[in-house]
Amino acid sequence: MNRSRIVFILSLISIVLSSCTTLKPYERIYVNDPDMQMGTSSAVSFEKYTQIIREGSVTADAKKGSGGCGCN
User: Fold this and answer.
1) Average pLDDT per run of 10 along the chain, which is 72 residues long?
2) Would 67 be classed as within a structural domain?
3) How many CB atoms lie within 10 A of CB 31?
4) Is the separation of the CB atoms in 48 and 62 below 8 Å?
5) Domain for residue 29, yes or no?
6) Do 38 and 45 form a contact (C-beta atoms < 8 A)?
7) pLDDT at 71
8) pLDDT at position 48, please?
9) In sequence order, what are the residues at sequence separation of 6 or more whose Cβ sits closer than 8 angstroms to the Cβ of residue 40?
10) What is the span of the domain harbouring residue 41?
């Protein structure tokens, strides 16, 4: 193997291994925070908002809002 491939593989392994971490019991409350959970009402409403702006239209279950250009 050439040197650049070995460096790439070692850097990839170091990135993967450094992304794993353990949490202390008092830090777990931040992970279990309702705002951190996927599918909460705020996340769903933000997703709908971004879809409305991207598409330039209003979905069937959303109220009339901005079309992304500042017009109502």
Assistant:
1) 89 82 81 68 78 70 57 54
2) no
3) 9
4) yes
5) no
6) no
7) 57
8) 80
9) 34
10) 36-60
